[in-house]
Backbone:
């Protein structure tokens, strides 16, 4: 059980157990990348609140790459959805097991100059599509997908711990797989983070 405490103005933790911050890649190339950031802000007070959502993209060394700010207002006992776009010039592309580079997108919720809440999300910038003749194409280059399906088949059944998931990923990597199909149900954010970190393409 995890107890989450927030102020009356917060990035909502109640969006179907989601983080309240969502990243959608609009475009990605060696020259530039654009990412749409959606932030859901909730207000449990009795007054309308005015805020700024500041998006900061950080590299793996925690160096600031870009900052974008957008203003919004959320009514009493309401939730406001705010969308903004942020760019990355000459991004280092997430390139599977060869170079699984991941940025961090940090959203700070600011009211009257005071930071009220912060949520961080991993951000891997890449271009992936499937071509009928060439197969999987990652950042313009064909990639041979060799993968497995992952079920929760450990001795504890559905009670899968992060330690169990670490062991599953270690087995997948030992096999030489670079792709995994997460079958039938929602898998944990921890395992998806492992896929990001080790360059495993998740379906």
Residues:
């Amino acid at each position: 059980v995890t107890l989450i405490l927030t102020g009356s103005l917060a990035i909502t933790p109640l969006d179907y157990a989601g983080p309240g911050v969502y990243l959608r890649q609009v475009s990605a190339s060696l020259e530039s990348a654009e990412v749409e950031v959606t932030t859901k802000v909730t207000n449990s007070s009795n007054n309308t609140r005015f805020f700024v959502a500041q998006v900061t993209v950080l590299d793996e060394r925690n160096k600031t790459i870009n900052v974008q700010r957008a203003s919004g207002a959320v009514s009493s006992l309401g939730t406001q959805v705010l969308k903004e776009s942020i760019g990355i010039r000459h991004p280092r592309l997430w390139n599977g097991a060869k170079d699984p580079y991941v940025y961090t997108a940090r959203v700070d919720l600011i009211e009257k100059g005071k930071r009220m809440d912060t949520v961080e999300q991993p951000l891997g910038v890449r271009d992936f599509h499937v071509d009928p003749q060439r197969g999987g194409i990652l950042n313009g280059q064909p990639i041979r997908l060799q993968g497995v399906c992952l079920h929760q088949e450990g001795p504890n059944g559905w009670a899968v711990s992060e330690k169990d998931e670490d062991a599953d990923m270690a087995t997948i990597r030992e096999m030489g797989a670079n792709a995994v199909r997460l079958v039938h149900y929602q898998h944990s954010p921890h395992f998806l983070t492992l896929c990001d970190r080790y360059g495993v393409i998740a379906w």
